[in-house]
Amino acid sequence: MQKERLQKYAELIVKCGLNVHEGQEVIVKAGLDQPEFAAMVVEECYKAGASKVKMEWDYMPIDKLNYNYRTLETLSEVTDIEKAEWQHKVDKLPCLLWLDSDDPDGLNGTDSEKIAKSGMARFPIIKPYRDALESKYQWCICAVPGKEWAHKIFPKLPVDNAVEKLWEAILSTSRVYEDPIEEWRKHNAELAKHCKILNDYKLASLEYKSSNGTDFKVGLNPIGRFVGGGETTLGTKIYFNPNIPSEEVFTSPMRGKAEGKVVSTKPLSYQGKLIENFWMRFENGKVVEVGAEKNQDVLEKMVAMDEGAAYLGEVALIAYDSPINNTGILFYNTLFDENASCHLAVGRGFNETIQGFEKMTSEECKKAGINESMIHVDFMIGSKDMSIVGVTEDGKRIQIFKNGNWAI
User: Fold this and answer.
1) Distance from C-alpha of 260 to C-alpha of 213, rounded to nearest angstrom
2) Pairwise CA distance, residues 6 & 37, whole Å
């Protein structure tokens, strides 16, 4: 891959994704797959004025060894060092960047129940720190190719060729062309336009239908709003883009208001394992039945992680005719596959999707209908023939999506 184009990507991540400001700290989390690109990003952070950049390296084979050999007790522990690191984030509000290159099958062979139980034990200890950070700091998730990930997508190619082809897919769907920052300015404006149209409708619910078996209705929050593209931090008022790429406009639905069946249209990589050809059925807002051709046990454990894991936290609208879907590539990665077409998410909702959230506590947002959970897992339901009808507060029916694409 041309170094000049990679440099533009690094600049996009730092200036548009994180929007690093003078004197800010930055934490970069990455696998061992692309150290040269990680160095580019670190240098761009310093050029943008960062006071300090900390690299945190990860290696999935070691994660797998830890899950296999450590006891549930040691996996569940939150050490004093970890608590101090979380407190530092609360005090300093550093920018957080994830360079994702994970192997979609990287944790095959691990004990799903042990992983789930350790996460459940850690969550109540970490939650107060997360609540204190919410909407106050800049963060961004983007991707770089890993060899195992690239081989999963392009199994017939030599590894180096597969990595190169994955680089091209990442850069093109992230709008890394002549002037990627200008491309993202236009893209954010387009997403904001869709949000305004949807919010002006004052929708009470959305009804989904698809020939694959999806027949589903979800109730929207009466004080909710659709958002998408960039976000603005509370306090510092810094605009940033948390996902590169991103094609969605989304909201958090009203907790307890979902009925019917949704059928996945892409596999879900969860905790390093692929859940394939699955569906969920909702009653009174809650998942009451699931099925999957592969790793159904993982899916069942996922929606039982805590009391809120079986309720919806997000409804996202993306045209089937999206740049990511048009690549024809199944990425086996939620960052990309969730932005290929419409998706839902079970678990934690987003406080920022309700009006006036900045003056509300997390508990008040919860009482207003935002779901709370230790997980937030996106899964794809968009299809070529999907229809979505919005029902307004006064009963008017509006065709929002037709044949998988925007109808408004």
Assistant:
1) 10
2) 7
